[in-house]
Design brief:
By secondary structure, this protein is α/β, with parallel strands linked by helices. The chain has one domain: Rossmann fold. It contains eight helices and eleven strands. The strands form two sheets. Strands 3, 4, 5, 6, 7, 8, 9, 10 and 11 form a nine-stranded mixed beta sheet that branches. It has a two-stranded antiparallel ribbon with strand order 1-2. It is globular and about 40 Å long.
């Protein structure tokens, strides 16, 4: 971990140290944080927090009090450094979530779990652990649900191909589930999705209209073609309109009001 880069997130509002050759956070943790309906002072737990990008994005946007759990000590150490450097509240616990000895409950629990199967292992062990599924997805969700207070939300970001596994593995204690596909452009199949469910929820399942991340049919030139929604999240530190099932028209209206 001696070879690090300092990278800007949220248009430089956050400065994040990351390993140059290991697992490097990109947009997934930012979108994950943007989906959580946390409020100032609420307690939020992130499982597999890495260097802390999702937790710190959420803390910056909402004023929530963050706790992270991270298996790999070097990444946990960087998460602590990043929290201190950015002046944000994040307590990081080192440990295996399958043997987690954590007391108390939380208003929200979030995760960007390893969701890749098979393939060639990454040369960097830390990157491979962060990306390749070892502990089953259902076990992640079981631990998340157990740490939730009644009425609290559980939010994950996953590859779209894992949706069947995620729905099958949802614990019986949660409901009111919303799936928000993230599509690169209009007419493109979603490659990622956000799943949010509620402890004790009883509302019907909702498959929301896709959130479109780029404007236009194709990328034209070197300019920034992020959609207004993606720009508000990735550049301005905003969140997804709540509820996640808000219609595309409602999303557009909310973004226009905020900007």
């Amino acid at each position: 971990m001696s070879d690090l880069t300092e990278d800007g997130f949220l248009d430089g509002r956050l400065r994040i140290l990351q390993p140059k050759g290991g697992y490097r956070a990109a947009t997934d943790p930012v979108f994950l944080a943007a989906a959580v309906p946390a409020q100032r002072g609420q307690a939020v737990l992130e499982l597999g927090c890495g260097v802390g990008v999702a937790s710190l994005c959420l803390a910056l946007r909402t004023g929530a009090i963050m706790t992270g759990v991270e298996l790999q000590p070097p990444y946990a150490a960087l998460a602590r450094r990043n929290a201190e450097a950015n002046g944000l509240p994040l307590t990081v616990i080192e440990g295996d979530l399958d043997q987690l000895r954590l007391t108390g409950s939380f208003d929200h629990v979030i995760a960007n779990p390893p969701y890749y199967f098979g393939g060639t292992a990454a040369q960097d062990l830390g990157r491979d652990i962060a990306l390749r599924e070892d502990l089953p997805l259902a076990r992640w969700m079981d631990v998340m649900a157990r740490r939730l207070r009644p009425g609290g939300t559980m939010t994950l970001i996953l590859g779209a191909d894992r949706l069947p596994d995620a729905l099958q593995g949802l614990p019986g204690s949660v409901g009111s589930t919303v799936v928000l596909p993230l599509a690169a452009r209009e007419g493109r199949a979603a490659k990622r999705l956000i799943i949010q469910t509620k402890k004790g929820g009883r509302a019907a399942f909702v498959l929301a209209a896709p959130a479109i991340l780029h404007s236009g049919a194709v990328h034209d030139g070197d300019g920034d073609d992020a959609s207004p929604l993606a720009r508000s999240i990735l550049r301005e530190g905003g969140g997804f309109p709540q509820p996640l099932s808000a219609s595309p028209r409602a999303r557009k209206n909310i973004i226009q009001k905020e900007t």
